[in-house]
């Protein structure tokens, strides 16, 4: 083989041998890779089959409509120099190619093996052309002399070791270290160059590990398909991908600071600074509507009312509520894809494990509603909520609660992309209600058109309030007076940066009261994770939730499973309902929280629920003009309107006005030593309880009545 000739005849022309060695190392890796892959285009078109060709010499990934048209001009191409190629954690077939310019291809292979083949060849090609980036391309003689001077002091043993690693790019980087360093010195700072060299070595060791595992004989010892070895391979690959992405972020950020154009725009923070007029409590005279009305007037009125707002009881006229006409759908792409460079800029300033509570995120990733309104989505199936108290036995009621709980998350995450709702302002509230026809209990509990629900419907009322700013704690409460049931919950959202994802812990507790049965159910909430934040972010839930009813002795354990590195399915959940005194499992649930759920009972019966086909009851809200100044929709209306118009600059100005006003109010309370007073909730122990909750009213009305014995 040629590599043996290089080792055995090293005493000849060293320049020639070195050049031949370099040529062998990369040319041997320049495997012809082409074939059909599925390419994600947009929401309308979705996934389409395209014929892809890896052009190793040019460092391009090209695609054509089909194989027959490959002799024509490519439909599209992506430069691989500086690109990051990452397997997706959505499934085992998908991967992304992120060019240094910010352009991205989201691709899907036919199976995991084909994906790994494409990813490995693309990474090798990207590595080679990234190292060549910025070089002045000296003539061959100069490169040979440089390599000769570097290797003149090397022993035959060291040369032999280098050629042993010819199947990795480690050999290339070692042979070219001197010339590579000098040619890129003006392009990258020393520490990034050293980091890339270390990454090259680590990638070589990773490939050696994979080859060693795959080369194990299947007849004796551990097999290449051993579960521990498969996990080791997957963990090693995931680690390398994460490190590669992080290094890519640092490189792009450094290039932006040096204003070096490498095929993409310089990265700058796109959000405008808050105008001085806003810092002084003024208005925004430049923000006007088409009919000439100055919206700054509304902002000025909020400023005047704000300092006297705490503790005021809200007078809510439910007769003013109308069916909500606003759309809950969010654009899945658009601004997030266009502003990807801003996300890269933001990520470059974060540290692993960093608390994101006080980090101001860019406006374009915001969902067009407040977090308080998002909590109302837990009640999007009010018929299932009301049906809990209909259970004929304690076991049935616990199973009904688990059913309601598992179906309550899907509606809040209807979009494919993870967006962030507005951080509520302290004192902000949200009110709404639902009507559930009395004659039509689940699964069709939606009022029909033309049906009068004033007397033939149960009314479920909801109120949420931001009761604390640091830490950010929200309280929300829902009740159905006719059925004598209510639920009270307080949640502290704590978010952390986790590298390529963001984790949000929902710390708190909920209490469901069924006054007709004298039962109280306590429950917690799962954590949420925004995955793939460099590409198309998506949400998954994770963690263990406990549900307990002390009176009946029934409990449930609900486990939201996050997708593992290797294999596994998305959005899996399982639950187990148990009677604690007898330690008997009475029901098991498995499936997806945003798909199909199967309930299996101990008597052999099963029941299947498709969450996507459950009817959603539209909530009823009061029009913005009838709401108070601190109710969510009126408070954020200018931000929401600007986001709908895709005017990010105007949305940012309104958003920062509200945030700056909140800081001003906090300073005012601190200076005057005025405590914050909530409107609807009061602090009790470690939680927050609604002032006029049903169980308080019931306890007060029956305080003089002697308790009745249980039947």
TrEMBL record:
SMART domains, sorted: PH (SM00233)
Bias (Polar residues) ranges: 12-21
Stored PROSITE patterns: OSBP, PH_DOMAIN
Pfam families (alphabetical): Oxysterol_BP, PH
Compositional bias per record (Basic and acidic residues), positions renumbered to this chain: 1-11, 646-671
Assembly mode: Heterodimer with OSBPL9.
Protein name: Oxysterol-binding protein
Species in which this protein is naturally found: Triplophysa tibetana
């Amino acid at each position: 083989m040629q590599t043996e000739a290089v080792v055995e005849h090293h005493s000849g022309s060293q320049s020639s041998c070195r050049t031949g060695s370099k040529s062998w190392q990369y040319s041997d890796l320049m495997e012809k890779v082409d074939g059909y892959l599925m390419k994600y285009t947009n929401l309308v078109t979705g996934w389409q089959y395209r014929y892809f060709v890896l052009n190793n010499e040019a460092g391009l990934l090209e695609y054509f409509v089909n194989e027959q048209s490959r002799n024509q001009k490519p439909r599209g191409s992506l430069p691989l120099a500086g690109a990051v190629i990452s397997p997706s954690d959505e499934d085992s077939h998908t991967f992304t190619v992120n060019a240094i310019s910010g352009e991205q291809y989201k691709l899907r292979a036919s199976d995991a093996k084909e994906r790994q083949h494409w990813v490995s060849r693309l990474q090798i090609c990207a590595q080679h052309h990234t190292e060549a980036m910025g070089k002045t391309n000296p003539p061959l003689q100069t490169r040979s002399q440089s390599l000769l001077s570097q290797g003149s002091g090397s022993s035959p043993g060291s040369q032999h070791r280098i050629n042993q690693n010819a199947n990795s790019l480690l050999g290339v980087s070692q042979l070219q270290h001197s010339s590579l360093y000098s040619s890129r010195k003006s392009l990258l700072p020393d520490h990034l160059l050293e980091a890339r060299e270390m990454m090259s070595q680590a990638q070589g060791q990773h490939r050696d590990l994979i080859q060693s595992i795959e080369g194990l004989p299947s007849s004796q010892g551990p097999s290449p398909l051993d579960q521990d070895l498969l996990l080791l391979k997957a963990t090693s690959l995931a680690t390398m991908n994460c490190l590669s992405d992080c290094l890519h972020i640092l490189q792009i950020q450094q290039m932006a600071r040096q204003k070096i154009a490498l095929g993409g725009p310089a990265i700058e923070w796109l959000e405008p600074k808050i105008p001085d007029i806003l810092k002084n409590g003024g208005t925004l005279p430049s923000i006007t509507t088409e009919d000439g009305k100055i919206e700054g007037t509304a902002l000025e009125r909020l400023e005047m009312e704000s300092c006297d707002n705490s503790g005021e009881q809200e007078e809510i006229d439910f007769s003013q509520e109308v069916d909500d006409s606003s759309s809950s759908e969010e654009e899945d792409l658009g601004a997030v894809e266009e502003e990807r460079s801003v996300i890269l800029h933001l990520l470059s300033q974060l540290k692993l494990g960093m608390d994101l509570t006080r980090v101001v995120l860019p406006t374009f990733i915001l969902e067009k509603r407040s977090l308080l309104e998002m909590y109302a989505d837990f009640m999007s199936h009010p018929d299932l909520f009301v049906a809990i108290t209909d259970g004929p036995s304690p076991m049935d009621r616990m199973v009904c609660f688990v059913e309601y709980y598992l179906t309550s998350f899907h509606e809040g995450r209807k979009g494919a992309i993870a967006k962030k709702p507005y951080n509520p302002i302290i004192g902000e509230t949200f009110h709404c209600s639902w009507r559930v026809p009395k004659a039509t209990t689940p699964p069709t509990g939606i009022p029909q058109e033309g049906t009068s629900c004033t007397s033939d419907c149960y009314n479920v009322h909801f109120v949420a309030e931001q009761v604390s700013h640091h830490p950010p704690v929200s309280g929300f409460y829902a009740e159905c007076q006719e059925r004598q049931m209510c639920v009270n919950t307080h949640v502290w959202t704590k978010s952390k940066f986790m590298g390529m994802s963001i984790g949000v812990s929902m710390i708190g507790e909920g209490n469901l009261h069924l006054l007709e049965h004298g039962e109280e159910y306590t429950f917690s909430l799962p954590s949420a994770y925004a995955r793939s934040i460099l590409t198309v972010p998506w949400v998954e839930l994770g963690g263990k939730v406990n549900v307990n009813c002390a009176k009946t002795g029934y409990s449930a354990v609900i486990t939201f499973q996050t997708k593992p590195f290797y294999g596994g399915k998305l959005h899996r959940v399982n639950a187990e309902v148990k009677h604690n005194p007898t330690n008997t499992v009475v029901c098991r649930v498995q499936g997806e929280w945003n798909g199909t759920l199967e309930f299996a009972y101990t008597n052999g019966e099963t029941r299947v629920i498709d969450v996507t086909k459950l009817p959603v009851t539209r909530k009823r809200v009061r029009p913005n003009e009838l709401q108070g100044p601190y109710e969510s929709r009126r408070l954020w209306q200018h931000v929401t309107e600007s986001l709908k118009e895709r005017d990010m600059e105007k949305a940012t100005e309104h958003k920062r006005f509200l945030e700056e006003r909140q800081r001003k109010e906090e300073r005012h309370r601190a200076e005057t030593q005025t405590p914050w007073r909530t409107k609807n909730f009061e602090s009790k122990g470690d939680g927050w309880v609604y002032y006029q909750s049903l169980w308080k009213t019931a306890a007060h009305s029956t305080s003089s009545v002697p308790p009745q014995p249980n039947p």
